[in-house]
Amino acid sequence: MLSHDAQLVNLHMSRTMANNICLLFHCEYDCPIRNQLYFVEFSHQNEGARVRKFYPPFCASMPEFNVVGSCNGLLCIADSLYSDAVYIYNPFASNYKQLPTSKHSQQGETILGFGFHPMINEYKVVKMIYQKNAFNRRRPPFGFSPLLYSQSEIQVFTLGSKTWRSIGKICYALEHRSSLEAPLVNGRLHWLTQPVSFDVRKIISFDLADEKFQELSIPDCAGSRHRNHALAVLGRSLALVVHCRNGDSEIWVMKEYNAKGPWLKEFKIGAYSPIFQNPHSERSLGLRPARVICLLKDGEVLIEYEGRTLVSYNPKSRNFKNLVFWRMPALFRTIAHTGSLNWIETPIEE
């Protein structure tokens, strides 16, 4: 039976799906109870709306998890603590499925991606498994993740099938945070590589139809290994966010998808010091740079700062506006979500 909050959420869904985006807040560090999901329907007309809490029905067996991705109303959620359990979950319909366990060493690190390809009408979960080796015992350079392995095993699960499939290996060292940032554009998932030695970062795509990897070009002036980069989706286009040393951010957009570009510098956002809802909290999520969440219908850019506040940026006026919702968690990671009450068309076989 659905909880009272879940019933209220379902009543709001038809209006939300027709007019507004949904924002999900994954609260990894919100004491006393960790790993909770919150929801709010967002538009400029309902600023200050109430944030509602979700309790995934499988959370008792998975106390700590990562939200891998959102696609067509479905969330991919993976265990981040004890095992490699992966769930596909519709928070508004309260439907979920646990995927079969894949066969790999528990000593490795994994990077995941989740998406749908309209040409083949299939949802897939991609798992890259980096096995620990002698190189990993050495201390990595300052500021680099220890996830610098020579190659990884690639496994793919197609929703509706029964087992994971191994499709080979790749030699790219992907950023560890890429497990939480794998934008889906044109049926392809995207990740950034680690900057190794004097190499610049690369953008790697994985086509969910032919299951092949490809390197994408990166803007020459955005390729410095000394800058902080991130990927995002703006509208339906792939975007590269470049955080500069002076605090400014540049957003490069690939409006016509092509492995060789072109990239257009769509936005330049000046340095901004947001007003935090909880200014006394010192436990921001690693003081990470601003995260570009999505492009709003009015052309403004939604940005998350340090996992503690949301801001909308108007590129025409260059004004910033703090967004506050009632009962918003103190620390969170924001996911732009398309609400749906439907389940996948090809259900997983039992």
TrEMBL record:
Residues 25-267 form the F-box associated beta-propeller type domain. Pfam families: FBA_3 (PF08268). It comes from the Eukaryota. This is F-box associated beta-propeller type 3 domain-containing protein. It comes from Escallonia herrerae.
